[in-house]
Design brief:
By secondary structure, the chain is of the alpha+beta class. The protein is built from nine helices and 24 strands. The chain has a nine-stranded mixed sheet with strand order 17-16-15-18-19-20-6-21-22, sandwiched between helices. Strands 10-9-12-13 form a four-stranded antiparallel sheet, with no helix packed on it. The longest helix is centred in the middle third of the chain and has 18 residues, at 322-339. 46% of the residues are buried.
């Protein structure tokens, strides 16, 4: 049984890597190495220049990933021979008398479509809406047009070439949960321990240890958190690491990943000058988080800028949800820009597929023109793939390498349903470490199809960058079945509202919880992002 309950200690992730030969990330604090103490992240791996779209060459067909969608089958089918020319039309019949004048709304005509008859007003009939009450049960309010991809939608396909009726994708339909592994260190440690078998397949599997962290909190003299201050940790051999604080005034250091020495000094700087003098700290070997407070001689100023980058998997396996996700993301973008009108907001995209598809990555640089951004998102479709893993490594490298502003809240939303290829985990992880060094939050949104490796990679990236793991659920009835997460404690709400809350939290520096009326259902014993641990929980033994 997988137990995933959280504690009340705010802890952050310590990275390490897997089997022999032992990578840098497995080094323990207090253990010297050739590189010395205070390890800094490596630079982003290089990539060739992004190329434009090219036709695919896959044995004459379109590369898919075993997708079951009818439109993919039509795209792969050989073109039909042209039909014979129609016979000459018969002579026109005598003109019929004019129809009687309609006398009211009850006089409803019918339209014949390949033998089936539907009422004329069906063009503006409502799409089926499934409402989920607080008891977790659904209520089908309309059966006129089934949700695409659902069992009802696939029962009776319409005669070709007419497309099957599709409800108009709209926001507020997809449902999701979230889990903060940084608030649940024991549970995440147990999860990582149980996932160790994946290291036999993935040589560079990232390993996030949340049981020992050093959190530095910088505040002004009024006790207000100081965003974007440079926290400098200096190790006993003179090497140092610099990490900037998030909007909540915190910067997190991981003794294993950062290879901290037993004794360190911590100071804070802003614009090249010292704002909090160096303070000596003894790094504990015991499990648990250490909080180091620094008081700055500078007043805190709230953030005024937001850089939001959306990294979206557009391979064929996302086809069951991509249209709904587009509607949700457009709604999220509109809501954020409307709520934070005083923020200077820029939004960009990296759409990605895989090697051999018509494109591997397609980048839309940061832009303040929201209409142009929305248009770029609306033009995307789902296609390609060919196997389960995708080119997540290239997408993350491109996204992290964009022109992020140093004085902005930096948020990267990763929407995907597959992991990187096994031999590209190291490159993907290097991008995550570079994101952390740039103070970028990586917030994954796991779509249907996510399996163990994808969840593991996404949760590791979220924990490393002081963010949360989001995952779609089956409550909406949209898309293929969603794999249940390896998490026992979470709330299910609407996806658009959840993402807005997460980004609001990143902007404000405080966790934003859903209102009671927003909660569709709850799983486990949830308490403001933390799960209540059972009395007999022992993470050392795998939970």
């Amino acid at each position: 049984m997988r137990s995933r309950l959280l504690t009340g200690v705010t802890m952050l992730a310590m990275l390490a890597s897997a089997p022999a030969p032992i990578p840098l990330a497995l080094a323990h604090s207090g253990t010297a190495s050739d590189q010395g103490f205070c390890r800094n992240a490596a630079p982003l791996p290089p990539l060739a220049a992004e190329v434009g779209s090219q036709p695919q060459q896959h044995n004459g067909g379109i590369k898919t990933s075993g997708r079951s969608k009818g439109d993919r089958e039509e795209m792969m089918a050989e073109p039909a021979p042209p039909p014979p020319p129609p016979p000459p039309p018969p002579p026109p019949p005598p003109m019929a008398p004019p129809p009687p004048i309609s006398t009211g709304a009850d006089d409803v005509g019918e339209i014949a479509v390949t033998g089936s008859r539907i009422a004329a007003p069906a063009m503006d009939s409502a799409a089926p809406v499934t409402t989920i009450g607080s008891d977790g049960y659904s209520d089908e309010r309309s059966a006129k047009a089934p949700v695409p991809g659902s069992a009802a939608d696939l029962r009776i396909p319409p005669p070709r070439p007419y497309p099957r009726p599709q409800p108009q994708p709209q926001s507020g339909i997809l449902t999701a949960g979230e889990h903060d592994d940084l608030l649940n260190p024991e549970l995440y440690a147990a999860y990582v321990g149980r996932s160790g078998d994946m290291g036999q397949e993935v040589r560079n599997l990232p390993r996030v240890d949340t049981t020992r962290v050093v959190t530095v909190k910088v505040q002004d003299r009024r006790g207000q958190p100081l965003p974007f201050a440079d926290v400098v940790v200096t190790c006993s051999d003179g090497n140092s690491i610099t990490m900037a604080t998030q909007a909540d005034g915190s910067a997190v250091f991981f003794p294993g990943l950062d290879r901290l020495s037993e004794r360190i000094t911590v100071s804070a700087h802003k614009a090249g000058r010292t704002i909090a003098d160096a303070r000596p700290v003894l790094v504990s070997d015991a499990a648990g988080g250490q909080l180091v407070g620094l008081t700055a001689n500078q007043a805190a100023i709230r953030p005024t800028k937001l850089d939001l980058m959306l990294v979206v998997d557009t391979t064929g396996s996302m086809g069951d949800e991509i249209n709904f996700l587009q509607a949700e993301l457009r709604s999220i973008i509109a809501a954020i820009t409307a709520k934070h009108r005083d923020l200077d907001i820029r939004i960009g995209f990296v759409f990605y597929r895989d090697i051999g598809d018509d494109y591997v990555t397609r980048t839309i640089a940061f832009d303040r023109d929201i209409g142009r951004v929305q248009g770029a998102l609306a033009r995307q479709d789902a296609n390609g793939g060919g196997d389960y893993p995708e080119a997540m490594d290239q997408a993350m490298i491109r996204a992290v390498g964009q022109d992020w502003r140093p004085d902005a809240v930096k948020s990267l939303l990763l929407v995907a349903d597959a992991p990187p290829h096994d031999d590209k985990f190291a490159r993907t992880w290097a991008a995550a470490e570079a994101a952390r060094a740039k103070r970028i939050h990586i917030t994954p949104v796991a779509a249907s199809g996510v399996a163990d490796k994808a969840e593991y990679a996404m949760r590791a990236m979220a924990a490393a960058t002081q963010s949360r793991y989001l995952f779609l659920t089956d409550d909406s009835g949209v898309g293929n079945p969603h794999a249940p997460p390896a998490v026992d404690c979470y709330l299910v709400t609407k996806l658009d509202a959840l993402v807005r809350r997460v980004i609001d939290s990143q902007i404000s520096g405080r966790r934003v919880e859903p209102e009671d009326q927003e909660i569709i259902r709850s799983v486990g014993r949830y308490d403001a992002g933390k799960c209540v641990l059972p009395a007999d929980f022992k993470w050392q033994k795998g939970g």
